[in-house]
Amino acid sequence: MPLGMRKQHKIIQFLKFTVLLLLVLVFFTPLVSMLVTSIKTRGELYVYPPVILPQVAQWSNYIRAWTMIDYPTHLINSLILALYYTVPCILGSAFAGYGFSRFKVRANKILFPVMLSTLMIPHMVTIIPLYLLMREVGMVNRFYFWILWGIQGTPFLIFLFKQYFSTIPVSFEESARLDGAGRFQIFFLIMFPLVQTAVVISAIFAFQWVWSDYLLPVMMLRGQKVNLAVRLASGYSDVQDNMLYNIGMAGIVYYTTPIVILFFTLQKKFISGLTSGGLKG
């Protein structure tokens, strides 16, 4: 490589590195701010000029965040809701995606675009009718509602599974069918294990959707059954209803930890899935 081109290549690489470093700083600034705020005293939040680091780290904020709102109870509630929704949502989406991929019927040409078009319907439009319907059938303040909500699948995950199933040769199923396997045996023993990347991606998305959901739990649940998102929004205040932001930030650190652990545990599958041929037409 000529000297001039080598120098130009190094300059380009340096500029790319600089841009990426700036992006990392931008994306990590809220996280760093949350961590720093969680160990400040209440007075240090309002001083001027602002202090970046506390004089003495207040690790006791994390103890107060854990005890002020009965954190274990609401943590268990959030985990239950997430699992009640995630597992049925993966199965329902996988069934629907498999059906769209393998059953070549005329109705699919209409049903599949209609299903995808529901992605454009805002969540706010459906939540009130959903609540009224669930109230009539006695599902308000019951965790089982999330199972019913999840089993129908979601348009995005159905599309994801359809694309993955479409990449699997039909010959796999034909061979199993010749050996006497039924449709459900083929699905669970052959097809479903072959789309584990889609399952991992779906698990991350579905878990995160319910874990961070505030509006539906605040409408559907009452009292000690509310999840962490609802309790964090109103639980950290003093006797005069003034928000304790430093304690609240410590609670949010607890709150975000499961999502961070889930992502970093499954990140290889997640990233490889998003960049693989499963999302291609």
Describe, in plain words, how this protein is organized in 3D:
The chain is mainly α. The chain folds into 2 domains: 3-37; 60-279, MetI-like fold (Orthogonal Bundle). 71% of the residues lie in helices and 0% in strands. Helix 12 runs antiparallel to helix 13 (245-275). The chain is globular and about 75 Å long.
Beta-strand content: under 5%
Instruction: Tell me the name of the CATH homologous superfamily of the largest domain.
Output: MetI-like
CATH architecture heading of the largest domain:
Orthogonal Bundle
What structural class results from the helix and strand content?
mainly alpha
Mean pLDDT across the residues is 85
CATH topology of the largest domain: MetI-like fold
CATH class placement of the largest domain? Mainly Alpha
Q: What number of structural domains do the residues give?
A: 2
Task: Describe the structure in brief.
The protein is mainly α and 281 residues long. It contains 13 helices and no strands. The protein is globular and about 75 Å long.
Topology of this protein?
Blueprint: H1 3-37, H2 60-68, H3 71-102, H4 108-117, H5 123-136, H6 145-151, H7 155-166, H8 171-178, H9 183-194, H10 196-211, H11 215-220, H12 228-235, H13 245-275
